[in-house]
Design a protein that fits this description.
By secondary structure, the protein is α+β, with helices and mostly antiparallel strands. It has a single domain, classed as Roll (2,3-Dihydroxybiphenyl 1,2-Dioxygenase, domain 1). The protein has three helices and eight strands; from the N terminus they run βαβββαβαβββ. An eight-stranded mixed sheet has the order 2-3-4-1-5-8-7-6. A hairpin with a 2-residue loop joins strand 3 and strand 4. The longest helix has 12 residues. About 25% of the residues are buried.
Length: about 130
Amino acid sequence: MDLQSFFHVALKVDDPDSAAEFYQAHLDADVVERRRAEESDSEMAVDAVVLEVADKLVYLFDQAPYEAAGLVDELPTGFLHFGYIVDDIEDAFGTITADDVEVVMEPARYGDKKIGFFVAPGDIRIELIEYLE
């Protein structure tokens, strides 16, 4: 599988706005985007703040979008996943499943992309992302 780039780290926090203030004050983070669940009709709508910290994105969610949609059981606060961009998510997941890696969410459309999740040793979730045209 060819990874194009590291995309983001996702964290589940009780209050995304308060958490964002911490990152802004202590890590000089810039707010890239704010999302409000009540402003969307998507089943994956959540409250979130997207930050740029140094040269990487940090997503602060009140719950993971895939959790809000009922695709996974409720997750604890803290680390959610790493996200990586791939050219072909179906091909990547074909390789993963052939290697008997635990898949927690098969690739599914999420806005302008397809996302899917699998588990690495240590119960670490990894998201693969393919941008659709």
